[in-house]
Specification:
- This protein is an all-alpha fold and 184 residues long.
- The chain is built from eight helices and no strands.
- The longest helix has 24 residues.
- The chain is elongated and about 60 Å long.
- The relative contact order is 0.09.
- The N terminus is likely disordered.
Length: 184
């Protein structure tokens, strides 16, 4: 959860160096307070729901905690957090869709305002699956909708693990083409 000032409980203001400054942050709380909002907004714009965006924001800061130096400049910290967010987002999409989507543009600051832009994902997934040949649709449903391992999916389809991997790869490529064609 992102900390906010409450009207009845104001926190004192503090100076944060701007990105051109060579000085780093004073402590981890300063790193979090200065960067949590933009990291959250960036991730929310990509995943479209508050719960996932909050979880992914926490993952970004946890992943950055160990390797990130407080002596790094503000610009270096922000660049590192952006790269970490890209990695965390790629892992999220790999787990949920089986496809890495790592694009984080510098110009995205606010989450989408339209609920419609967020809520069409299930319909788009159903459309993509409906356009795929049966075997491709089956492997993707087993792997990503039912959460089976590649070995379990292969057994269910009565094919070898190697064949299941090839089938999954081809299905993902075709699904990506179908999805990209529908985005025009």
């Amino acid at each position: 959860m992102i900390a906010r000032n409450e009207p009845g409980n104001p926190r004192p203001l503090r100076a944060v160096p701007n990105s051109g400054d060579e000085h780093g942050y004073t402590d981890w709380e300063a790193v979090y307070e200065d960067n949590a909002a933009w990291v959250y907004r960036t991730l929310f714009a990509r995943v479209g729901n508050q719960a996932d965006a909050e979880d992914l924001t926490a993952e970004v800061f946890l992943a950055a905690l160990r390797p990130l130096r407080l002596t790094a400049s503000v610009g270096e910290v922000r660049a590192y957090l952006r790269a970490t967010a890209r990695t965390v987002l790629a892992a999220h999409w790999r787990e949920t869709l089986g496809r890495e989507i790592t694009s984080i543009d510098d110009d995205i600051e606010q989450p989408p305002e339209s609920e419609e832009a967020i809520s069409t994902a299930p319909q788009r997934v159903a459309h993509v699956l409906d356009t795929l040949p049966d075997r491709y649709r089956q492997i993707l449903e087993l792997r990503f909708l039912q959460g089976n391992s590649i070995k379990e999916s292969a057994a269910e389809l009565g094919i070898s693990v190697a064949n299941a991997k090839v089938l999954q790869h081809r299905a993902l490529r075709l699904a990506a083409q179908v999805n990209d064609g529908g985005q025009s």
